[in-house]
Structures are given as structure tokens and as C-alpha cells.
Amino acid sequence: MKYTTHSAEETKALAAELARTLTGGEFVALVGDLGAGKTTFAQGFVSALGSSSRVKSPTFTVMNEYKIDRQGGVSNPAISRIARIVHLDFYRFSDEKELGALELENEKRPDTVILAEWPNIFAKDVFKPDVTVTFKHAEGDTREIEVL
Ligand code: ADP
Ligand code: MG
After folding, report:
1. Which bound ligand lies closest to the C-alpha atom of 45?
2. Cα 106-107-113 angle, rounded to 5 deg
3. Ligand 1 atom closest to 40 (CA)
4. Which of 69-83, 86-100, 129-143 has the lowest mean pLDDT?
5. Are 90 and 116 in contact (CB under 8 A)?
6. Partner of 58 for a Cys bridge, out of 10, 40, 89, 97, CB 3.0 to 4.6 A?
7. What is the pLDDT of residue 120?
8. 13 lines ligand 1 (CB under 6 A)
9. Is the pLDDT reported for residue 22 higher than 90?
């Protein structure tokens, strides 16, 4: 499906829609240039599932983890199985030896959704994406976003 958003808020709302269709255990590849909206999408995704933590770009940390708070009461039973989100960013990741230390295989759990920026660099050796979201920077605040 192809979408057009005109603000960061619209991209977050689109991420929230996708979040509602997942059940846990998925690997979501976020593909697109710098500034295209991948981290913004991750912010919308995490807050839609009920984490109060602020999503920061994992560009320097490679991996950030968000626990889902349940006090909001998620009505969809499938979503309520998602207990954590792992947000990865391989943009600055250059050491293939460090990849083993990340133990990505252990992050792929039925209670976890993995969101990965620049997955084509390293994560593709470990995971095949269940969903690929491609972001294209258009004029101004417009973004063309394809979910496959
Ligand atoms: P990336 O992670 O792909 O490098 P970010 O999400 O960090 O990109 O940055 C996107 C920037 O563009 C943010 O400053 C965001 O507020 C801005 N922005 C403007 N319009 C949009 C839009 N339609 N969708 C997403 N971000 C947008
Ligand atoms: Mg980013």
C-alpha cells in the first residue's frame, strides 16, 4: 500500500495504523534516506502500542528497547501480546564482528516487534523482513511511504 503524509504527525498516525495490524514476532524494515522519516515512524509506532518512553534515534546506540506499559488497557488481544519493541539503526554500524555481540537472533521473540533502520547493511543477514516500509522524501514535508 502507498501513502502520502504531509507532516511528522501524519507519519506517526500511519505508524500507529501499522502497529495495530501486528501481533508480535515481526521484523519491520524501515528503508529510506536520512531525514525521510524512519525514526519519526518508530516514534508513532512505539507510542501507539502504549509506551510512555520517548523514542530517541538509535543512530549512536545501534539498539534501543521499549517496554510496553499496559495501564492504558489495549483492547486488541493480539496487540496486547506485544510487550516490547526493539528499535535498531545500522547507519553507523561498521563492525561486522560486533554484529554477533548484538545477538539479534535473541531479540526475535513472539512478544517483540523489531523496527530496523538501514537494515540492508547488516540485519538482512539475520532476518528476512515481515514488513518493509519505504520512505521517500518529496517536496517540503511531504513523504511517500510504501508498506509492503
Ligand atoms: P530518519 O530517521 O529517516 O533519518 P527522522 O524521522 O529522524 O528521519 O527525521 C525526519 C524529519 O522530518 C523530522 O524532523 C520530522 O519532523 C520531519 N518531517 C517533516 N515532514 C515529515 C513527514 N511527513 N513524515 C515524517 N517526518 C517529517
Ligand atoms: Mg533515523
Report:
1. 1
2. 150
3. 6
4. 69-83
5. yes
6. 89
7. 78
8. no
9. yes
CATH fold of 2-147 reads Rossmann fold (3.40.50)
- Other CB atoms within 10 Å distance of the CB of residue 120: 12
* Res 78: pLDDT: 63
Residue 71 above 70 pLDDT? Answer: no
Pair 66, 95: CB distance under 8 Å: no
- Cβ atoms within 10 Å of 114's Cβ, excluding its own: 25
Please tell me the distance between residue 11's alpha carbon and the centre of ligand 2 in angstroms. Answer: 13
Residue 41 Cα, ligand 2 centroid: separation in angstroms? 9
CA distance 98 to 6: 38
Is 143's C-beta closer than 6 angstroms to any atom of ligand 1? yes
> What is the domain partition of the chain in residue ranges?
2-147
